[in-house]
Amino acid sequence: MTFGLSVFFSLISETLMERVNLIVSFFILSGIVLIGIIFDIIGVAVTSASETPFHAMAADKVPGAKEAVKLIRNADVVSNFCNDVVGDISGIVSGTAGASIVLKIISDGSELVEILISTLIAGLISAMTVGGKAFGKNIAIKNSKEIVGRVAYILFLLKERFGIELFPGKTGRK
């Protein structure tokens, strides 16, 4: 799955980066980094959330409550997917997008300019990724119930409208 997702997102990123100007390239890069941060927030929120409030919500038939319980009971799988699979892929793809931006900037520059720009772009990507994830972890821990609830509601809508269920079966204990 990781290989397939990585190839898919790399292909889309590279195709887009070749066809757009420098400013749009920076927006694409920011979007890739933001996807990694958002999924990191989801992974941390699911691992730090408690099942208890969602049981009460499920008893009241609140949409998404059962999905929230499934998310929390599968926190190891959810965290692995969100933090490791999507997070690592977005890190790799953002590095590739950064390299594409560097190539656009340095097309006719000297070697010193090439080194300086590639170093600055790498630093920018690292700062955005690490800083965003650090900030996001704090938000995820403090707001885990709300974040899990929103993600669970999205999963509920996917199941209701499109028949897509990521955690089929009963919500019984592992």
Short descriptors:
174 residues; mainly alpha; 7 helices
Task: State the gist of this model.
With about 170 residues, this protein is mainly α. It has helices at about 1-20, 20-50, 50-60, 65-75, 75-105, 110-140, 145-160.
Multimerization status: single chain
**Total count of strands:** 0
Strand residue percentage? under 5%
Order of helices and strands: HHHHHHH
Give me the Rg, rounded: 19 Å
Structural class: mainly alpha
The percent range for helix content is over 70%
Uncertain regions spanning at least 5 consecutive residues: none
Q: Let me know the average pLDDT.
A: 90
Distance between the termini: 23 Å
Q: Judging from the principal axes of the Cα atoms, what is the shape?
A: elongated
Largest sheet: none
Number of helices: 7
What does this structure look like?
The structure is a single chain. This protein is mainly alpha-helical. The protein contains seven helices and no strands. It has helices at 2-19, 22-48, 52-59, 65-73, 75-105, 111-142, 144-162. The chain starts with a helix and ends in a 12-residue tail after the last helix. The model has no long low-confidence stretch (mean pLDDT 90).
